[in-house]
Amino acid sequence: MRARDLAEPFPAVSLDDQALDAARLLAEHRLPGVLVVDDAGRPRAILPASQLVRLLVPGYIIEDPSLAAVIDEAHADRLCEELVGVSVGECLPRDAPEPAVAAADDTAVEVAALMARTRSPLVAVVERPAARRDGSGGELLGVITASHLLHRLLGNA
Amino acid sequence: MRARDLAEPFPAVSLDDQALDAARLLAEHRLPGVLVVDDAGRPRAILPASQLVRLLVPGYIIEDPSLAAVIDEAHADRLCEELVGVSVGECLPRDAPEPAVAAADDTAVEVAALMARTRSPLVAVVERPAARRDGSGGELLGVITASHLLHRLLGNA
User: Fold this and answer.
1) Which CATH number fits domain A3-155: 3.30.420.40, 3.50.50.60, 3.10.580.10, 3.40.50.2000?
2) What is the rounded CA–CA span in Å between residue B104 and residue A51?
3) pLDDT of residue A123
């Protein structure tokens, strides 16, 4: 069982995509996060749904939660307007870690070890052609979530 | 729109449940984590799927990833045996944060602010009867995920 056999399709957005579209993607698929790829299609970051929620909430409310209770429903309905015109790249937290990346030929145990070491709930799987001289990652094949890996490992138990 | 209207059912396990059953629950529902409740049904922690994966991987492999490649398929199939006889309580990381908890009457903006402040992808919603003298939380009504909150907020946009 290799990483390429474990990889599943997963929604990805690019750094230039609109944050509002990323939010719709997360909302529609009920995902905890979306993979962000650069112009070359290489995994760059995970944008968590909680980060997008964070952008909706005015800073003074995060500082003083008691103010949240006094915002009325009409204003709440307009919260998502905060995302209009904002790109995915602008939404990423500065300390957003690079996503964990496995090579297509890695074994299930190598993927599990990578997940364990990085404490990441998601590993991106890339084809890594040996011919690439710059050492950069290759084509994105999909991702392996921790729950999917458990599913496959339990299926063999 | 109040927290009670946003709350959805979510699988929960107790501290005494078997870790293997928690893993099966996560795998079956493809969830990134499961809510852990105490004997009184109060939210105590989130057990992430990545933490269960971490328990499957022998410590010497986490220390030295190159060893992962030499483990054969037959051994990989037995990894999940590591979870046999282990309770959920024993699996929780020592630094597992308490889950973010909202009261049933909190507004959507209060829930968003709580999620933003705690950077939590999941907020547990509890009935919090004022009559409780010990200040402890009440009955668990469900949870609100960041993607579900985005879904509801976008639905009104």
Assistant:
1) 3.10.580.10
2) 23
3) 93
